[in-house]
Amino acid sequence: MAKIASAGNYGPKIRSDCMVTVELTDSGGVHIELISKVKDFFGDHIIALAQDEMKFFGIKNANVKIEDRGALDFVITARIEAALKRADNTITKSYLPEMKKHCLYKSAKDALRRSRLYLPGGSPKLMLNAGLHGADAIILDLEDSVHPDEKDSARILVRNALRTIDFKGAERMVRINQLPLGFEDLKEIINENVHVILIPKCESKQQVIDIDESIKKIKKAKKQVYLMPIIESAKGVMHAYEIALASKNVIALTLGLEDYTADIGVTRSKSEDECFFAKSMVLNAAKAAGVQAIDTVFSDVNDMVGLYENVKQAKALGFDGKGCIHPRQIRVIHEAFLPSQEELAKAQQIVEAYTTAKKEGKGVVSLGSKMIDAPVVKQAQHVLKMAKIGGMIK
Amino acid sequence: MKKADKFVKNAAGRLVPTVVNGKKVIPFMGVNKYRPTHKGAAPRVPTIIDYPQDCNKVVDSLKDALIKSGLKDGMTLSTHHHYRNGDYVANWIFDIAAELGVKDLVWLPSAAFPCHAPIIKHLESGVVHHIEGSLNGPLGDFCSHGKMKGLGYLRSHGGRYRAVADGELHIDIAVLAASASDMMGNANGVHGKHPFGPMSFSKVDSKNADRTIVVTDTLIDFPCYPWEIMGNDVDFVVVVDEVGDPQKIVSGTTRITKSPDRLLIAEYAAKFVEAAGILHDGMNFQAGAGGTSLAFVDFIQQMMIEKGIKARSMIGGSTKYLVDMMNNGRADYIFDGQTFGLEAISSLRDNPRHIPIDVYESYDFHAKSNLVQMMDLIVLGSTEVDVNFNANCVTHSDGRMLHGIGGYQNCLMAKCTIIAVPTFRDRIPVIKDEVTTLVAPGELVDVIVTERGIAINPLRTDLIEATRNSGLPIRDIRDIKNEIDDLCGVPAKPKLSDEAVAVVEWVDGTILDTIHKIEE
């Protein structure tokens, strides 16, 4: 059993985080040492908080060093808990911050998912204001953005963030690790009003079923958790349709082209021509299964023109959303998803014709000499919805 | 002599001294309630027969010039801050004074910077008694700990100009760094080896000091023109190898911020300006050089392009961005009291539409009008604001002195003053119940823009009305404060002693607030 362990981050460039080092001792009580740039304002508070947490875990003797760079309470307590659990792996309890009311809103299966902002699960600073930038969803990532050695600590941090931070109505998503590590992630976070679980490197329907079952077992509330498998391998692309159909909780398929291009042995190009098949497959599979299709992330955060063109292309293919890795991408994505003036005018005509036909009790809707089928009407209604959200129409 | 004595509560509810460094001062009476009745400064009257007939005032050294100027105990010496953190002159002066055994000097910089830390030893040894101007960095820390013999006296740029010009503050010797001068002392900051821009802050010193010394590293043939400092006002010219380091003029960033949160603040500010009807063809506005200000200007510029409009004028400190904006036809004029970067300096020197301004033109309280009054919009930062829209820019929330007032108070005379701030820094909320130090009275602050929403001063019913259906996140300032307190926690009050270490002057010369000693 390790007697001394650390968790967190500290350094001149670190903000809103802290490094906690716990040394379990045999006698002498609990000593908290605090180094903090906000000591004058929050020093007493932080020490009292740390004492309370140690008491909660039943620690009678320990030296705790907190090197703080302006971390909020939920970060400090997460880092203490992680350090403690590293020092003593028999500890299983969780020191949960109060679940804030602003964390309790709901989502819906057909929620708008034009933009989803990835946030590294180990970086509290990026989480605090993430909700301010208008993304349809935020993703707290436990997978690729978290170092393998930091999975335990990030998991606790993400759990606490889900109970604390106001994401301002953005859908609350977590990307878990690949199985079996992902099961550990689920245990920690699934009861924290997570709306959607992103399943990385999904290649088979069984993975979806396993995760769905696991969630059912550990989830306390009845409300279901939606699933968004990420297709990022050749195998995954081939199985996209059955993956989409694997559970009624699957609400979208999304693509990860970095890994996919590596898997098929090509370099990812700006045009993404080499991914055309994968995109088409995933898109078609999603639509066939009646779920949303979400495009991969655009990784050059300085190229807003390129992003706009890229999203326009995704929209033209039929995608409903795009991943993003920087808040400034959100606006561009939303703009690119707006219908064009022509699309809008056409959609207005179709919906008008449909409304008139309905009023007149006609079974067949027609516009000019053309008959209009139900899917076309539905699509037109969707265009109007997007236009309304984007402020193009009232 | 007590540093500060006979405290009373002023009109802002702040306890302030009525005696500072032995001189009587008047407590703040409210905005526009007090009219100073001085008759003007009375500098020594020179006679031309006492000066060299060939007009050559070059002397061997700064020491020589100071001795010839009659440097003695208790004198007030002024410098300007156009080299900002690259200033050499102030440190030289007090090293020389120490060498000569002179004591109890008062230093009157237009602003002090971290490069002036060496002056601390002269404050400790008694060469310098106290500083009137701005106190920040290491000097601010020194003063905050109550170590300065006299009381610090913080004035805005406009307040400093007023005090010097109306005779409240007498300068014995002004020592003015210039990037170029001729032997008469005609000098400017745009020619020579190390140009820095306009010499705005120092003109008033050269006109009202008993003695004026120009220090330069580039002596050029008569005439040195433009003569921002007129040789007619100059006693001595000193030539040195290097007068200052223009590389250090820029201390922070002068690039558009990349922080998404700061970009959001800038964007909200710009959208507010548009929604409130302030953005219009022919508008006049101030545009600062900080990262958020530049982002704000960039948003404004995009809006101008979309609407096909342009500004009539912009006030800097200008950067390459502002110069490009004017050259691209988005503004007719730039006014500058300080420039940042070589592009801005050469534009100021070569483009007649890039106009150097001094403090009289921009900020003066005794002037019959001034430039900031013409500004439709000014955007400022802040260390703290409070629920009554009061703002602080000189102390941190722990009471430590961080910055000078600069033009902060003077800018409040604009038609619309926006303070753009993040809601918290390092977990410390920026919106308080009451600011630690009062610098900007709330009645003059119109809008506070944060990344969590925009709060409009209830006094500005016109702005509230104009932006009612704008779709912008306009919120009650208390509502924003509650959200941040919930996120960050409410910080403990700073531990401050009753002992005063400095005062903050309001633009009219009255005492607005007291800065207290830090308790460890």
Topology:
The complex is a heterodimer of chains A (394) and B (520).
Chain A: E1 4-8, E2 18-24, E3 30-36, H1 39-56, E4 62-68, H2 73-87, E5 115-120, H3 124-128, E6 137-141, H4 151-164, E7 171-175, H5 181-189, E8 196-199, H6 205-218, E9 226-231, H7 234-238, H8 240-245, E10 252-255, H9 257-264, H10 276-289, E11 292-297, H11 304-317, E12 321-324, H12 328-336, H13 341-359, E13 365-367, E14 370-372, H14 374-389
Parallel strand pairs in A: 3-4, 5-6, 5-12, 6-7, 7-8, 8-9, 9-10, 10-11, 11-12
Antiparallel strand pairs in A: 1-2, 2-4, 13-14
Helix pairs in contact in A: 1-2, 2-4, 5-6, 11-12, 13-14
Chain B: E1 4-9, E2 15-20, E3 23-24, E4 58-59, H1 62-68, E5 76-79, H2 89-99, E6 105-109, H3 119-125, E7 128-133, H4 137-144, E8 152-154, H5 157-165, E9 173-178, E10 180-181, E11 187-188, H6 203-208, E12 211-216, E13 236-239, H7 260-275, E14 284-286, H8 291-307, E15 311-315, H9 320-327, E16 331-336, H10 342-350, E17 354-356, H11 359-363, E18 378-380, E19 384-386, E20 391-392, H12 408-411, E21 417-420, E22 424-425, E23 428-429, E24 431-432, E25 447-450, E26 453-456, H13 461-466, H14 477-488, E27 496-505, E28 511-518
Overall pLDDT confidence of chain A: 94
Give the fraction of residues assigned to helices of chain B.
Answer: 10-25%
Largest chain interface and its two residue counts? A-B, 27 and 22 residues
Can you tell me the CATH architecture of the largest domain in chain B? 3-Layer(aba) Sandwich
Average pLDDT over all residues of chain B:
94
- Span between termini of chain A: 64 Å
What share of the residues of chain B does DSSP label as strand, in percent? 15-25%
CATH superfamily of the largest domain in chain A, by name, is: Phosphoenolpyruvate-binding domains
Q: What would you call the structural class of chain A?
A: alpha/beta
The secondary-structure class of chain B comes to alpha/beta
Major beta sheet summary of chain A: 8 strands, parallel, barrel
CATH class of the largest domain in chain B: Alpha Beta
Assigned CATH superfamily of the largest domain in chain B: Glutaconate Coenzyme A-transferase
Rg measurement of chain A, Å: 24 Å
- Poorly predicted runs of chain B: none
Instruction: Tell me the helix content of chain A.
Output: 40-55%
- What kind of sheet is the major sheet of chain B? 10 strands, mixed
Strand coverage percent of chain A: 15-25%
Integer count of domains of chain A: 3
CATH class term of the largest domain in chain A? Alpha Beta
